[in-house]
Model the fold of this input.
Amino acid sequence: MNDTSLLRQDARVIGLVGLAHGTSHFYHVILAALIPWLKPEFHLSYAELGLLMTVFFTVSGVGQAMAGFVVDRYSARAVLFGGIGLLGLSAVMLSSAHSYAQLMLGALLAGCGNSVFHPADYTLLNQRVSKGRLAHGFSVHGISGNIGWAMSPLFLTFVASRTDWRTALLSAALLPLAVLALLVWNRHALRPGSASAPAAPAGAGQGGAFGFLRLQVVWMCFAFFLISAVALAGIQSFAATSLVSLYGMSLAWATTAYTAYMIASAAGMVYGGFLAAGSRNHDRVIILAFGTAALLSLVLAAAVAPAWMAVALMGLIGLATGISGPSRDLLIRGAAPANATGRVFGVVYSGLDSGLALGPLLFGALMDAHHPAGVFIGIGAFQALVILTALGVGSKTRLVAAAKTA
Done:
């Protein structure tokens, strides 16, 4: 295959997988975006609203670890198609809910659909994208997720404010249906293959299908995602509500601050892709990025800046964390044994869902106790803790690399 054909194939696969990932992230915040409508409609507390998101991410986390084995055993493409279909069905179910229990069932179904994306996406990228463009593939994958996060509240609040929350959810159901049709049309590009397989860490081949679970670095990666996702959950679920209380800004302005975070994070991932492609010290990039984000979160908590600056600070936090994204994914790829990418990414990324499940409960309790500043203090504290896990993962991967070259 010549360079032009290879570039075209890589771009096509990266684009399709990125689109699917963006759809997944769009659904991460469909309930959080509709809190101003769901709270009075169902007479719910913030903690009860947080529990809906906890159910979503708990189901997704458990399902994600299982989905990794299914992806490695069968087909990442088929698993991905099934997940997208479930997301569309969940939005239809949520739109017809007339009780808290029905909302809970809709969140559960959405969590099932969301569970397949990381193991399926990363397996497809590793199989179908050439090694030289893999860092950029991870970058686009992260960017598309952030675009989904950014577009979801804008779209849902726009539709709900002009119609109602049920119409907003029904409209959201159209997105996965359209994406699924496009993926099926381009299914040949996502066929099984092996463009770039990761090297196997020491000890990875022992223990059969579950041998990778003995690798300490895999569990360090899990902890990294768990802790960073708790901070992310605070931003996704209650940052906008907290900004309204702390700075006296309107909900629309606070939603703009959240969108600034996501767009800046996407921009950070673009730069982070080039940074990761030219560096081997991925942990150092992560440490600097999260250290900066933690300090900025504490500045937001102090509420000493004007409202317009709060929007800018949210954007800077997003930029810092976005830069770390491709470096993070390449660190994890280094921990994945050959032919076990789906399993490793499934288990490791279940830490992301676990953190996103715990976070809404924690930050929802802070909001119910009338501590909006505590939301940003908590976000900053968890961002600082990420540094410790990045140090651990980086030192382990360097030891493995040194052992291979010795």
Notes: The chain is about 80% helix and 0% strand. Residues 226 and 351 are 4 Å apart (CA to CA).
